[in-house]
Structures are given as C-alpha cells and as structure tokens.
Amino acid sequence: MAGPTLGQELRLDSLAENSNSDKALAETQGAGANTGVLGQLAGDADTWTSREGLSSSLRIVLLLTVLSLAPAVLMMTTSFVRIIVVLGLLRQAMGTQQIPPGQVMTALALFMTLLIMAPVWKDVYDNAIAPYTEPGSEMTMQEAWENGSGPIRKFMIAQIKFAKNGQDIWLFYDHMGTDEEPPETYSDVPLQVLLPAYMLSELKIAFLIGFNIYLPFLILDIVVASVTISMGMLMLPPVIISLPFKLLLFVLVDGWHLVVGMLLESFAVVT
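and the corresponding structure tokens:
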C-alpha cells in the first residue's frame, strides 16, 4: 500500500499548526476573562466594604425594613385592634371553632376600620400628602410628617380620653428614661409613648366588650350543663347541646347587628 504523498503531509502539518494556535488563543482568552471577572469582583468587594458602600447598603436595609413594618405599624394606630379582638372573643364565646373563618373576621374588621378611619385618613391626605406632592410645593418632609401625624394622634388621644385610660400614658412615660419635664397636655406626649399606650387602652376596651358578649353564652352553657347532669347524660358533652341554642339565641336577637353597632358606638368621635 502506498504512503501519503508530499502534498498530503504538508496539508496535515498545516491543520495541526492551526489547531495548536486555536487552543493557545482560547487559553489566552479564558485566562484574560477569568482575570477580568476576578478583578471586577475584587473591585466590587472593595466598593461594598468602603464607607460609602456600607452607608448605601444600610440605607437600603433600613428602607426595606421600614416598608415591611410600616403597614403593620399603621394598622396598630387604627380601630382594627379593638375590632379584631372583640370578633375573636365572640367566636370563642359561641364555641363555633373556625366558623366564621378567620379571613371573614379579618375582612369584616378591615371594612369597619375603613369606615371609622376614613375621616382621619382624609385629613392626613388633605393636610400632608396632597400639599407635599403637588408640583412646586415648598413644604418640607418635617412639616408633612407633623401635619400627617396630627390627625392620627388626635384619634388615638380621643380614644384614650374617652375610655379614661390616661394612666397607660404615664406607665410608658415613666419607663422612657428621659430627664425632660412631664407633658402637660396629651398633645405633648411623645409618639413612642402614645402608640403603646393606645394599644394597651384598646386591648382593655376590647376585653371589656368581650366580657359583655361572653356572659349570656356562659349562662347558657351553665344551664345546659346542669340539665344534662340532672338527666344523667354524663357522657354527652354539654357544648354539643348548647351550640344550637347559642346559634338560635344569636340569630333571634340579631347578634351581628348588635355587636357591630356596639363596636361602632364604642369609638369616640374626633372633632
């Protein structure tokens, strides 16, 4: 068999040289790319750990924290706390376990909160948000904050005064650890004192309303338990028998109307 010709040998040598050169070029480009990526990461690390980088990162973390907590904090300054606690106690008093569902209770509490807080939020929008966001406004952020927090403060103060729970303010003010003179009026109370005092006042009122709701259902449970024991039905839980009577009593007296009306009337009107 004849060996390869001279032309074929030259062609094979040329292909081998081209392949070796392509491999060398690829290795050079890969090394350069790796060096560029590592250099960029090293530069970014220097930027992250610098004073300006840390300051920007802290601002972003603080902003995200405020945005995540703001809705919950804002909701605690409204009538939602009292309403949702009373509705929860009502469900426990009736013994219906998860009926109505928690979503229904929360939705009802939110709708009632919107109804009660609508005038307050309208004042916040008219006095702070609208003037601050309109083009050419000279209102500063501090002025917008003072104008916006004013109606909310008035609402919380009105509820505390209406329930005569002013001692809750002094409870938190005594533990604030300040050397300043005690506030002479409710308007001088710091916000960090007013917020927990308002929530404590709302919980007190909610539990008082819940006790009034619980009492008739408790009496009905006692009567049913006495009847079942006197009839010798010791193995039958009284709750099973009393539940239909509770539902019947609640429907006959139009309980939802009474409870919602009592809740709406329990809030002081802000003037």
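(Above: one complete record from the training split.) The first helix runs from residue 6 to 49.
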